[in-house]
Amino acid sequence: MASQKSFAKGSAAPGPVAKGSVRLYSMRFCPFAQRSRLILNAKGIKHDIININLKDKPEWFLKRNPLGLVPTLETSTGEVIYESSIVCDYLDEVYPERKLLPSSPFAKAQQKMLLEHFSKVIPYFYKIPAGKNSGEDVSALEVELKEKFGKLNQELVNKKTKFFGGDSITMIDYMMWPFFERLDVFDMKPCLDKTPELRKWTECMSEDPAVKATRHSVDTYKGFYKTYQAGNADYDYGL
Ligand SMILES: N[C@@H](CCC(=O)N[C@@H](CS)C(=O)NCC(=O)O)C(=O)O
């Protein structure tokens, strides 16, 4: 297996993407990149991963994605795609095995709308840990987050399904999951106390093979986030 160590400025560019494979530029602890890793795993897509040092990005990476963000996908014909939800939709469209987006335009639109709502929840997964780390009172933020979780919980109650797109995992579940995976790391699990369906969803998600294949242990996450919060992120933490 190729090294998972991150590539930094000055490093030699990796060779071309092998035919029949795709390449993901990633960072081991990035929740957005994890979305793409989940889809690659769930669909069994042949791929390689190049981890990027996000504090000191290689010039050849910035040439591929001028925004300098992971995830970035590259195909064997040199197509480059970035932005996690665009990468994931692209993979679902190109690789027909185990379709993750619904075929009905309305059901697909519903997933996109839910994702749009969820994008307004994501900042809480950053603000609360950062506030706790600097000793601030985050109780008001936690109240707001619980309210948002209440809405997601109601979605599951209304649908009467285990997952957000039905009784099996679909795209929307994988798009939301990486952020929930980190609740334990920041001692935020109690935010799920009043939302039993949502909590059950997190339990069901934890059993999924793609989730198991892409996750780190809580201790590894804690170790990485300690370096991140100290302003000295160690992207190779635990290797
Ligand atoms: N909207 C982007 C967000 C991706 C993102 O923020 N990735 C972070 C790592 S978790 C990144 O690449 N940061 C590098 C930087 O901001 O320079 C997506 O969904 O792909």
TrEMBL record:
CC per GO annotation: cytoplasm
Keyword Oxidoreductase listed: yes
Pfam assignment, any one: GST_C_3
InterPro entries: Glutathione-S-Trfase_C-like (IPR010987), Glutathione-S-Trfase_C_sf (IPR036282), Glutathione_S-Trfase (IPR040079), Glutathione_S-Trfase_N (IPR004045), GST_C (IPR004046), GST_omega (IPR005442), GST_Omega/HSP26 (IPR050983), Omega/Tau-like (IPR045073)
EC number(s) recorded for this UniProt protein: 1.20.4.2, 1.8.5.1, 2.5.1.18
GST C-terminal domain ranges (all copies): 104-229
The keyword Transferase appears for this protein: yes
Protein keywords: Oxidoreductase, Transferase
Reactions catalysed, as given in the entry: L-dehydroascorbate + 2 glutathione = glutathione disulfide + L-ascorbate; methylarsonate + 2 glutathione + H(+) = methylarsonous acid + glutathione disulfide + H2O; RX + glutathione = an S-substituted glutathione + a halide anion + H(+)
Gene Ontology MF terms: glutathione dehydrogenase (ascorbate) activity; glutathione transferase activity; methylarsonate reductase activity
Gene3D superfamilies: 1.20.1050.10, Glutaredoxin
Gene Ontology BP annotations: glutathione metabolic process
Chain ranges of the GST N-terminal domain: 20-99
Domain of life: Eukaryota
Protein family membership: Belongs to the GST superfamily. Omega family.
Function, as annotated: Exhibits glutathione-dependent thiol transferase activity. Has high dehydroascorbate reductase activity and may contribute to the recycling of ascorbic acid. Participates in the biotransformation of inorganic arsenic and reduces monomethylarsonic acid (MMA).
Protein's name in the database: Glutathione S-transferase omega
Gene this protein is translated from: GSTO2
